[in-house]
Amino acid sequence: MAQIEWTEEFSVGNASIDQEHEALIAHINQIYEQLSRPMDTEVIESMLEELQSDISAHFAVEELLMHEAGYAELDAHREDHEHLLDQVHDLIFHFTEDPDNGKELLINRLSDWFSNHFKSFDARLHDQLG
Ligand SMILES: [Fe+2]
Ligand SMILES: [Fe+2]
Fold this sequence. Notes:
Layout: H1 15-35, H2 41-68, H3 74-97, H4 99-122
One fe (ii) ion (FE2) binds at residues 62, 77, 81, 117, 121-122.
């Protein structure tokens, strides 16, 4: 299972954002753990919906801070957030329609998408948010 491990390279140097990232990573890891057990579609669906709303709230906070800081890459960063939210929405849809296939997609993609965003867009926020 491709669990995400928190490393200092994910730190953006803003305590509340770092804390939210750690919480999101813990949440994604819990989903992976759940996926390694005998399938309980209802539990997985509710975990995914909770993750979706946490992610969406986190993105809103991050975008507000970038806006307040006059961050130059805000538009591109926001676009990547929207892209990620679309993908999470698709994953949930696939899982609901076809849990066995949807589970494979989750296992293969969920952690990579977020680690990639943390390591690229979010990492470039370092020392930019005050
Ligand atoms: Fe971000
Ligand atoms: Fe973030």
